[in-house]
Amino acid sequence: MSVSLVSNAYLDETSSKIRSKPVPWEGYQRADLVTSEELTLIKKVDRQPRAKIESLLLSDGQTYALLYLRLLKKLQRVDTMQSILVLIADALQDHDERIPLFTRTTESDPELPYTPLLRTLDMQDEFMQLKAAQILTVLLCSEPKPLQPKLLQPFLNTLASMIQSNSNNKHDVGVQCLEALLARPECRQAVWAIPGIIHGFVDILKRNPGPQMSYQVSFCLWLLSFERDVAQDINKKFDIIPILVRVAQGAVKEKVIRVIVATFRNLVTKAPNANLPAMLVAQLLPFAKNLCTRKWTDEDIVEDVQFLRDELAANFQSLTTYDEYTSELASGHLSWTPVHESDDFWKENAAKLNDKDYEQLKILIRLLKDSRDPNVLAVAAHDIGQYVKHYERGKKPVTELGVGSVYWQRLCAEHGINKEGILEEWATEGGDRKDVFFYQADDEHYIPRAILVDLEPRVINNILASPYANLYNPENIFVSKDGGGAGNNWAQGYAAGERIYEEIMEMIDREAEGSDSLEGFMLTHSIAGGTGSGLGSFVLERLNDKFPKKLIQTYSVFPNAQEGDVVVQPYNSLLTLKRLVNHADSVVVLDNGALARIAADRLHVQTPTFDQTNQLVSTVMAASTQTLRYPGFMNNDLVGIIASLIPTPRCHFLMTSYTPFTSDSIDKAKPIRRTTVLDVMRRLLQPKNRMVSTSPSKTACYISILNIIQGDVDPTEVHQSLLRIRERQLANFISWGPASIQVAPTRRSPYIATNHRVSGLMLANHTSIASLFKRMLDQFDRLRKKRAFLEQYKKEKMFENGFEEFDDARATCDELLKEYKACESSDYISYGSNDNEPS
């Protein structure tokens, strides 16, 4: 195989300058780095006319090949190594017959010819790196036997970094080297195993390169497309088809179109099902028809274009509307085609998004998370809304597939920890207490103090398939062996807890024993379904029994008041509420309806995505622990926070407000122009910003307020803001307790850039939350009066002899409601002292 040295103007110009520079060969001899014989030989070619050098190589080429490589191996000065590389390249230039002279040097030294050349690739000097790549390509491409991975891999890794760099010279040389190497099958397989090379090709094409570079990169892709596994997956992984279509449409040189069309033919021939739909979405069919009408000088292109046109036309005829839709999803290029806005399409096909483990739904959610194209984001958000609207139980999978581990991702970002649990090199400011929520493994990775538990695998499988999969301790992940879930039934979830009690408690005990100063537990769950409510209730009871002196705080997601995916959610919610009253020390109430309303308002969209509401919740959760992780003088432990908010044990249900939600905390949030402490504290008091949907009442009042203010805060500004709020009577407090807003200033994470000076979270104990409990009671009573859906509860041990547990849970909720209402009166201190009042 005849291979020429890759050409590059920078290499040619620099080589010309290096040929005329003197090299201190005599000094090397005096230092015993060069022998007398080597000195004699090298002086014969050093800065000599080309004709004289050619004559020496003709008569004694093997000796000089061995000399050059030995000198390159043992000398380390940059200018000397540059000269040797130029001598080697000059010897090989236009003389393929000399290549064996260099490859045979391995007979004299097993490290030759490749070890010194590969070492040179690691040098910082750009000329040396490019010149070594030029020489290595010629030698490797001429090897008669398949190339060994230990030889090929380091060279390909260097080429990957070259084509991904910002240097045009590195792009030029790197692509030419790959163009030559990819003619060999083993090189094609090795390149396919290095995603950085394909990403480099894609990035170059996206920058609208000149015709020659477009041709060379497309030629590399054409060579790769001869491999079946490449043809099968290259568009799925790198979205290459629409990029090549765009390059071909804008090409002015016939050779660029020719090689791209040949690439498309390979993709269709070797993997039609994977590529034809994507080609149709990329509008290749009309372009192919147009190409068929042109005059071409190359007959091969005519045949390839006609082949493409015919294959695409045949595939277009057989496509169903849903096939077109999935092809568009696979391409990642969504646009407002009629199918998206057709109610008939969604009525017929919404449920199909569940096929193959929610494959199409996952693509939509991934596009929402990763795309930066506003049109793609708008169409994807619309499609998810249509899925939820037309598939009866659509909210549940969307919520689960979107949640992931947003809260832990937020904490990692705030502490400078990457997705692998490794502290970033730039995270050096310190001052934070990472050990509150993380501990360090033996290899110094940070691991969350978290236990992930579910009765069905889908949620946790999605976490384990996310970029943060390696963050968690695998010993702290539990999925029920049968994987059947709790069937949205509190009783099933609770009964499952009894079966898996020992496994769950073993994980909890291990984490508790590994804590130096355990203060309490935080539980995050939903109260409407089966697992979060039933299993969550069981865990809550057992935690309280086993750790009676430790605090338990929950973040409990309450169902939307207006709509619900679970028909028995009134039963599940009330049964869970009883445990939250009796076994939790503090409950942060998060209302799905209020979350959706706030997210929609902040984003100016009609239907916010579940991922956006989850980001909102994670921001609130992170802010509520800010004083623990970035401690100041006050509220730097959990007991300090809870004690300031809960003066009476049963009334421990807290509502939250947060402002401002901006793009650093929730994607696509509208900008906030200015923030002051007064403005933030005033916004926190506005009912529309509360994350609980409560009914307005003239008698409702605050029992307590704690504002956690993050950022650049002057104590004088805080004091003046409190005076202004008091003067304007913006907060109505109970009459029997202190009527004051507590403020905890705290530092913001230095690792997250923000576009606002001040942000704030309000944790508030407010009597209007009684309206939430009243709504839950009313929904429960309506369902219970009809005796609806009780049979599925009777199947479990707790209810096999009757429904006293329902009655007891209702009574507990009713007592809680009455006590919150009693807090509004001045004689609350005597509440419960009369026989007719609950104690």
UniProtKB/TrEMBL annotation:
Top-rank taxon: Eukaryota
Similarity comment: Belongs to the tubulin family.
PANTHER family named among the record's database cross-references: V-TYPE PROTON ATPASE SUBUNIT H
Span of domain Tubulin/FtsZ 2-layer sandwich: 634-778
Record domain Tubulin/FtsZ GTPase: where: 434-632
Record key words, sorted: Cytoplasm, Cytoskeleton, GTP-binding, Microtubule, Nucleotide-binding
Example GO biological process: microtubule nucleation
Name by which UniProt lists this protein: Tubulin gamma chain
Subcellular location: Cytoplasm, Cytoskeleton, Microtubule organizing center, Spindle pole body
The species this protein was found in: Moniliophthora roreri (Frosty pod rot fungus)
GO cellular component, one term: gamma-tubulin complex
Pfam families: Tubulin, Tubulin_C, V-ATPase_H_N
